[in-house]
Structures are given as C-alpha cells and as structure tokens.
Design brief:
The chain has four helices and seven strands, in the order E-E-E-E-E-H-E-H-H-H-E. The C terminus is likely disordered.
Length: 187
C-alpha cells in the first residue's frame, strides 16, 4: 500500500497562553496542502516491524519516529502483524508543516485499510492525538479551525525565512512573539 502524507499550513496562529508544562494553547486554522511524503506499508518479510527512511534527513532513530509510535499505539488497540514501512521524506522536518504528524496519521489510516480493521476516523483520530497535537487533523484531511492544547509541535510556518529551519518548539519562546503577544516571565 502506498500513501502520500500531505503537509499543512496554518492560516494565522494565535498563541493564547503558556501552560505550566512549558507548552502553549493555540488557536489556528489548518489547511492541507499538496506537498507530500511517500509512505509504503507492506507485510513484513521478517518477524519484526521495520521502518526505512530515505530522502530528507530525519533527526531521530527509527524507533522514536512518529510512524513507529503510531504503529505501536495501534498495536496496543488491535492485534497487528509485523509490517515493513518505507518512508520517503520530502516535507522538511521541524518546519511546522506537520510532516511527521502526517506520516503518523497516514500510518494509522494505511494500517486500518491494509488489514481491514474497520476503525472509524474518530477512533483513528483519538489514537493519533496521543502522537501529536496536529495528528488528528491529518486523519480527516480537510480545513480545520482548531483550538489546540498542544503538547507537541505547533508553529506558524509563515514566520520561517526561506531555507532556514527552526524547531517548532523554539518558535513558542516569548522572544519569537510579536510584542503584543509576549507574556511576562513567571518566576
């Protein structure tokens, strides 16, 4: 099975408040865009699930990749056979475009279809939510107004200069906010 996990852009991003855990509650409108990674899921040749990544560099080992986390989360819900997953990264990592989140969500969708699991989109979105704040968006793949309580990545991709990568969590520091959005430092 070959899937094409798409990127997203945020049309506006309002950082509402900083939470005690250091993350932020945000409000945004997410729009799917046709810039895609390539994800192939096939029955495993061996007895273990594997992930092979090519294309753009991904800054984590395969076992920590959101694709593998999505597979393991679904395997906790239903019995899954091992699969071999091939991911061709095209969407830049850490740019706020949702590439990793899309890959995780499409992994869930693909496994659901490949093995005829019959899980609803709402159930897949529940599982996806545990992988990242914007993962459920990629289950539905349609424009979405969101009030997120994010514990993962969220950024306004428009704030990034061309050919420059800023990890999305760095964009949440108060120094990156316009003066009217900066919050006073607490203790």
């Amino acid at each position: 099975m070959i899937l094409f996990p798409n990127a997203k852009i945020n049309l506006g991003l309002d950082i509402l408040r900083r939470r005690p855990d250091g993350y932020h509650d945000i409000e945004t409108v997410m729009i799917p865009v046709p810039w895609c990674d390539v994800l192939e899921i096939v029955p495993a040749k061996g007895s273990e699930t594997t992930l092979t990544v090519s294309g753009r560099r991904v800054d984590c080992p395969p076992e920590k990749n959101l694709v593998m986390k999505a597979y393991r989360a679904l395997a906790e819900t239903v019995e899954l056979p091992p699969v071999d997953i091939f991911l061709r990264k095209i969407i830049p990592d850490g740019a706020g475009l949702g590439g990793g989140s899309a890959d995780a969500a499409f992994t869930l969708r693909g496994l659901n279809e490949l093995f005829a699991l019959g899980l609803s989109d709402s159930r897949l979105a529940e599982i996806a939510a545990g992988r990242g704040a914007d993962c459920p968006f990629f289950i539905y793949k349609r424009p979405h107004h969101s009030h997120c309580q994010t514990s993962d990545k969220c950024a306004d991709s428009r704030s990034l200069p061309p050919h420059h990568s800023v990890h999305t969590t760095d964009t949440h520091s108060r120094d990156h906010l316009p003066p009217h959005k900066r919050m006073a430092r607490t203790a």
